[in-house]
């Protein structure tokens, strides 16, 4: 009987780890965002927003926002968007000195990578669509 508890705990822990790894694998068709701070100062905040295009059933457009605080100079942050539909994507950032930077909006498919380069001149976005076979 004293071996049952460790076995049960081990099984529960294994199931939990398997669940989280499985959830990560099933998110393969969501866009990835790579944001690089090319400035010489810390970005106080980086905020990016998506506007999901309405679906056939739900005609109300939805938005979702993400933020990164204190992005250090010459560092990169990577994040996955929770979107399975095409969306508009825009980035805003605030430098440590209070300067506001903004990007143009780009359209992003449900698969691909958005590269955001934040410099002292502004924010440049580039979207690369991934092709799956």
Rg computed from alpha carbons, rounded to a whole number of angstroms: 19 Å
Strand content: over 45%
Stretches with pLDDT under 50, minimum 5 residues: 19-27
Indicate how many domains the architecture comprises.
2
Q: What structural class do you assign from the helix and strand content? A: alpha+beta
Number of helices: 1
Superfamily (CATH H level) name of the largest domain:
Domain of unknown function DUF5300
Shape: globular
Please describe the biggest sheet, giving its number of strands, its sense, and whether it closes into a barrel: 5 strands, antiparallel
Oligomer: single chain
Helicity level, as a percent range?
10-25%
Provide the CATH architecture of the largest domain: Sandwich
General description of the model:
With about 130 residues, this protein is an alpha+beta fold. It folds into two domains: about 1-30; about 30-130, Domain of unknown function DUF5300 (Immunoglobulin-like), CATH 2.60.40. Helices cover about 15% and strands about 45% of the residues. The protein has one helix at about 5-25, and strands at about 30-35, 45-50, 60-70, 75-80, 85-95, 100, 105-110, 115-120, 120-130. The strands form two sheets. Strands 2, 3, 5, 6 and 7 form a five-stranded antiparallel beta sheet that branches.
Give descriptors for this structure.
133 residues, alpha+beta, Immunoglobulin-like, 2 domains, 5-stranded antiparallel sheet, 4-stranded mixed sheet, 9 strands, 17% helix, 45% strand
């Amino acid at each position: 009987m004293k071996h049952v508890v460790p076995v049960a705990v081990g099984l529960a822990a294994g199931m939990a780890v398997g669940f989280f790894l499985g959830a990560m694998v099933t998110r393969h068709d969501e866009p990835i965002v790579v944001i690089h701070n090319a400035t010489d100062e810390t970005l106080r905040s980086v905020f990016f927003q998506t506007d999901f295009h309405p679906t056939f059933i739900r005609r109300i457009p939805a938005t979702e926002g993400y933020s990164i605080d204190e992005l250090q100079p010459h560092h990169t942050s990577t994040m996955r968007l929770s979107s399975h539909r095409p969306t508009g994507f825009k980035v805003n950032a605030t430098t440590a000195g209070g300067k506001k930077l903004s990007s143009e909006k780009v359209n992003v498919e449900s698969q691909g990578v958005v590269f955001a380069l934040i410099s002292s001149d502004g924010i440049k976005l580039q979207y690369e669509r991934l092709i799956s076979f």
